[in-house]
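Q: Predict the bound structure with 2-acetamido-2-deoxy-beta-D-glucopyranose.
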Amino acid sequence: MANRTDNSTRCSTSKKPNDGLMLILATFTGIAIGFLLGVSFPTLSLTKMNFPSSIVPSVNTVYIEEEKPERSSKKVLPPQELNNSSGAAFHKIWVPSNPRGAEMLPPRIVAAESDFYLRRLWGLPKDDLPAVKPKYLVAFTVAYGQRKNIDACIKKFSDNFTIVLFHYDGRTSEYDEFEWSKRAIHVSVPKQTKWWYAKRFLHPDIIAPYEYIFIWDEDLGVENFDAEEYIKLVKKHGLEISQPAVESRKSITWKITKRIPGIEVHKEVEEKPGRCNDPHKPPCAGFIEIMAPVFSRDSWRCVWHMLQNDLVHGWGLDFALRKCVEPAYEKIGVVDSQWIIHQKIPSLTDQGTVQAGKSAFQGVRERCKLEWTMFQKRMSRSEQKYLKEIASASSNST
Ligand SMILES: *[C@@H]1O[C@H](CO)[C@@H](O)[C@H](O)[C@H]1NC(C)=O
Ligand SMILES: *[C@@H]1O[C@H](CO)[C@@H](O)[C@H](O)[C@H]1NC(C)=O
Ligand SMILES: *[C@@H]1O[C@H](CO)[C@@H](O)[C@H](O)[C@H]1NC(C)=O
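A: Predicted complex:
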């Protein structure tokens, strides 16, 4: 496979390996899962709220809930349709259509999905949220050194976006200097990658209300980008998986990501000879890179399931995205008229560790390549196995 150029929160090739020697290193073993869900909304601690206990019950009885639960999209089976094959005989309530493990609950109480909306500690729950709730989500994986760029990026995303910051350097409270920080969700786990975070904190059921999900690196220049305009174009052109086109001072690895001036969107390109066996397949079509992807809700549900818990750099993922949309060459594309500049500032690679005579950079880079191979193998084995099983099942039945 051809070389890939760098990408700060993934792996970087633009740095010479010896540069990595200069880096300051902490050991991976010391990774404190200092997990700081710093929702910096009200800094009230519940333990400090000493209500006289007599108030509490009266508060409870004053408010009689009239609202319907916000989400009860699950089909509710009438009792006569509930059969006893899976426990109905032993339980007063047994609803097979509930999520697995929740069958004993009456369906209307089941809240199978969630959101990142911040709520207040007082007042009526129904008045917590603004009339227009954010319907898009943007997640950046960041280090404090890039805060100015992050600030510039976030200003390109309107109030219709929920902002999530994944802090891989453990610094979170410093962001309070930015006004938007108060409404952002801060998640801090040192030395983890964008895809590690995405797998753990962006489960499709947790971010269910968001129509589009941006999962971006921290080193993107956004002078020529506006998120609302971007979404209009993505909708107009039916893109389920997309990225803004890229301008870069350095060379661009995959031609499809390069901006074509004067048009709104492109979905395919001609690559160097030999790179594409099929013009409808990556890297000529059905392809974007993983530094600034944007997913529709449905495509993210599929892509999330494809993320492997142990493969954290995301290498090879871009080539497999097409498996989540059909036909990929029409639903995956690059938006030219809202575009970004890739500044290529490697940073997460600086967070590796010197090991067995290898620089930190080298170690991270080798891991990236290894993961790519592992991912490809898993995918092809799993496909082959499945197709074989299907074939033998159908030959048995005939
Ligand atoms: C249970 O009931 C559902 C709904 O009527 C039906 O589709 C299903 O086949 C039944 N299962 C068994 C084991 O009877
Ligand atoms: C369902 O319940 C009936 C009556 O209790 C019983 O005869 C039957 O065997 C049960 N069926 C299953 C699949 O458990
Ligand atoms: C946010 O979304 C609403 C509803 O779609 C739209 O009317 C509004 O213009 C959007 N806000 C911005 C800043 O674009």
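A: The chain has eight helices and ten strands.
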